[in-house]
Design brief:
44% of the residues lie in helices and 18% in strands. By secondary structure, it is of the alpha/beta class. It folds into two domains: 2-122 and 301-337, Nucleotidyltransferase, domain 5 (2-Layer Sandwich); 132-296, ATPase, nucleotide binding domain (Nucleotidyltransferase, domain 5), CATH 3.30.420.40. The strands form two sheets. It has a five-stranded mixed β-sheet with strand order 3-2-1-4-5, with helices on both faces. It has a five-stranded mixed β-sheet with strand order 8-7-6-9-10, sandwiched between helices. It starts with a strand and ends in a 24-residue tail after the last helix. The structure holds adenosine-5'-triphosphate, magnesium ion and fe (iii) ion. The site of adenosine-5'-triphosphate has 23 residues, from helix 4, helix 5 and helix 6. Magnesium ion binds at residues 10-12, 141, 304. Substrate binds at residues 138-142, 171, 184, 276. InterPro entries: ATPase_NBD, Gcp-like_dom, KAE1/TsaD, Peptidase_M22_CS, TsaD. Fe cation binds at residues 115, 119, 304.
Length: 342
């Protein structure tokens, strides 16, 4: 099946074509991404109404561009997959409306994809030999979760953040040290030049049992350290390094705990924070030490993209699943409520 994927849940317009007849990453015939980062930067965060309007402007040109790059006509499509939630309601409606209209005009099935399932399955796009059961660490701008993946569509939440998501903590911490939006990747880049160990922050909630996270206290620790410092460039980098090490250590400790608790030896990492180099290295080292396996998507497939939606939708459409013709989105949506893919 040749599936068009559309992602518009937040501030990225993502479009891709995935062909299930080709193995793994070769199935990705073309993809395009338009980031609204510059649009929202002056407000220091995503402005929902501006996001919706920009999706309206960019989506159809991106669909045309992606089909042209794949050398396909709209009539070659066998199905359409779009992000139906969770996310910003107006932004989701743009993608869902366009996807539904296309599917109706082409008389092909369409399916609303759960954005976090898209993130979660992205590593499988590049590693087709990867099969459940495995533990997934989902770390993005809005989520930090450990999920037991029993099968495609069979997800059991093991633990999640009680306050800020890991990506949100990166962004907020960057902001309080004056880095421009979106600060997460910039904070990580700064940490590369930081002195390890000069600033030591806590590893929240690792001193007690359980698989939940809490990152908001870490942000406060950084605020106090930054306020009481000389605020030089080197200090900023050193604090960034201390913060990154604290987040990475905390995530690694909880991942190892989740693997122990479930008896799994495979860990799959997805979501924007999965692009973090130090997190990748740390989890790789942990997996090697345990004799297990860790899988990450390439960094461009960690953050929001259309490919993960095309891929997740393709798995469901191939299994015969699809939704009726109404345009429905779910700004809040529990991944555990998804149907299994047989
Ligand atoms: P959600 O998927 O929960 O709805 P989102 O779609 O906004 O949220 P993603 O696009 O998956 O999130 O990821 C964006 C987040 O990843 C941002 O918070 C960003 O700071 C963070 N991020 C991206 N690259 C890095 C990096 N190298 N190191 C740390 N954080 C990063
Ligand atoms: Mg984004
Ligand atoms: Fe996302």
């Amino acid at each position: 099946m040749i599936i068009l994927g559309i992602e518009t849940s937040c501030d990225e317009t993502g479009v891709a074509v995935y062909d299930t007849a080709r193995p793994g990453a070769e199935g990705l015939r073309a993809q395009a991404l338009y980031s609204q980062v510059a649009l929202h930067a002056e407000y220091g965060g995503v402005v929902p109404e501006l996001a919706s309007r920009d999706h309206v402007r960019k989506l159809l040109p991106l669909v045309r561009q992606t089909l042209a790059e794949a050398g396909l006509a709209p009539s070659d499509l066998d199905g359409v997959a779009y992000t139906a939630g969770p996310g910003l309601v107006g932004a989701l409606l743009v993608g869902a409306g366009a996807a539904r209209a296309l599917a109706w005009a082409l008389d092909v099935p369409a399916i609303g994809v759960h954005h976090m399932e898209g993130h979660l399955l992205a590593p499988l796009l590049e590693a087709p030999d990867l099969e459940p059961p495995f533990v997934a660490l989902l770390v993005s701008g809005g989520h930090s979760q450990l999920v037991m993946v029993e099968g495609i569509g069979r997800y059991r939440l093991l633990g999640e953040t009680l306050d800020d998501a890991a990506g949100e903590a990166f962004d907020k911490t960057a902001k309080l040290m004056g880095l421009p939006y979106p600060g997460g990747p910039q904070l990580a880049a700064l940490a590369e030049h930081g002195t390890p160990g000069r600033f030591k922050f806590s590893r929240p909630m690792t001193d007690r049992p359980g698989l939940d996270f809490s990152f908001s206290g870490l942000k406060t620790q950084v605020l106090l350290a930054w306020r009481d410092s000389d605020q030089s460039d080197q200090t900023k980098a050193d604090i960034a390094r201390g913060f990154e090490d604290a987040v990475v250590d905390t995530l690694a400790i909880k991942c190892e705990r989740a693997l122990d608790a479930t008896g799994c030896d495979t860990l799959v990492v997805a979501g924007g924070v999965g692009a973090n180099k130090r997190l990748r290295a740390k989890l790789q080292a942990m997996a090697e030490k345990r004799g297990g396996r860790v899988a990450f998507p390439r960094p461009a497939l960690c953050t929001d993209n259309g490919a993960m939606i095309a891929f997740a939708g393709a798995l469901r459409l191939e299994a015969g699943q699809h939704d009726d013709a109404s345009v429905r989105v779910a700004p809040r949506w529990d991944m555990a409520s998804l149907p299994a893919v047989a």
